[in-house]
Amino acid sequence: MSIRNYAAYLKPVALAAAFAASAVGAVSAADMMPVKAAPPPPFFLVNDTWVSFTWYPKATDPGVSGNNIVGQSNAFSKYVGTISHFDVWAYGTNFFNLDFLQSASNDPVQNTFVPNAKGAVEVYAFARSTIGLNEIFGTKMFSTFLTKDISFEWGGDANTENNFLAPSKKDLVLGAQFTLNLPGTVNLAVMAYKEWNHNQFMASDQTGFINAGIPGLQPGPFTFVGCCFTGDRSFQWIPRIELGIIEPLTFLPIPLTWQGITAINFPKGTGISTANLIAIGGTLSPASGPFTADNASAFTKVEVFEDNRLTLDYSKMFMNKAGVVDVYVGYRYWYNKFGTDHNAPIFSVAAPGTSIESTVYTGVSYHFK
């Protein structure tokens, strides 16, 4: 029975109960009182808000070398506080997530390595919503041997960070989500993706230099027609694939769940206009290579993000109250982070390995119930 049809189901059941009671024919007034209709279902069938704290011991930022030394790879601790919300209502779902990320001192503010340097700080917001076609049309048409449901999905991301890249990301996604007919919850989304961002790698002011301040790279002079290229970018629309998995491991004697997220962004171009690209010495085709021998290629690559964790319902196991306190361990792999080319000299020579993140992590969540 669909969520939508559940509300319609209650009314005939209540009417049937009232008719049966009145047909008994008992003489007492109490027996003749009408039976109250069943209360309507709540607006939110699931309504969950929680906070989390996660530690990533080997995070990376593309282009940030270790201790400002050319050729030294760099991995640092990152501490993340999170506020999350998930709800299910009659026609779909909503998910909202807000991260506060604090890097250790070897990922310093503005890439400034000084004694007792402050680590960079980032705020990242994420949202996704769905509308189920079975629920909208009151049907089971979209429940097949392949799918449990098909939904329209949309959402977006936004961030800001005070490191050298100075990102200011905004993106929009929309497309279709297929809830696969598999055990647990397996959602495959195929969407269109559009991103606006800022990237300091290619920025310049009136001095006519790029790469200023990037460890180990010589500034690249160029003649800019007009004035400046700020580093702001508007990337092209691309396909994006998201796979979400929630599998309770019911065969185990403890309340353990596997949760997995995979996201793939296809190459999204340079985000730089043709005029700006030519002005800073770039080429119009990725086949022509990077801008210079020292510079990172402006042409983005396929980006793959994978995150898998095992979550233990601690409160169910030790407090006899399910779904309040979770503890988890996981592994994150991020290939060509932010779409950067890990083979470009800045990520393979000057700051090797920083375009790929590979780290285990651990954390705890508290659900407000």
The CATH architecture of the largest domain would be Beta Barrel
CATH superfamily caption of the largest domain: Nucleoside-specific channel-forming protein, Tsx-like
Q: What is the number of beta strands? A: 15
Structural class based on helices, strands and sheet pairing: mainly beta
Average of per-residue pLDDT values: 81
Helix count?
5
Number of domains: 2
End-to-end C-alpha gap: 27 Å
Strand arrangement across the biggest beta sheet: 1-2-3-4-5-6-7-11-12-13-14-15
What's the CATH C level of the largest domain? Mainly Beta
Helix content: 10-25%
Along the chain, the helix and strand elements come as HEEEEHEEEEEEEEHEHEHE
Radius of gyration: 27 Å
Shape: globular
Major sheet attributes: 12 strands, antiparallel, barrel
Outline the structure in words.
The chain has 369 residues and is mainly β. It folds into 2 domains: 1-34; 47-367, Outer membrane phospholipase (ompla), Chain C, CATH 2.40.230.20. It is built from 5 helices and 15 strands. It has helices at 3-22, 133-137, 274-279, 314-318, 345-350, and strands spanning 44-59, 76-89, 92-103, 121-132, 147-161, 170-180, 185-198, 209-210, 220-221, 232-234, 238-248, 256-265, 303-313, 325-335, 357-367. The strands form 2 sheets. The chain has a 12-stranded antiparallel barrel. The longest helix has 20 residues, at 3-22. The radius of gyration is 27 Å and the shape is globular. The two termini are 27 Å apart.
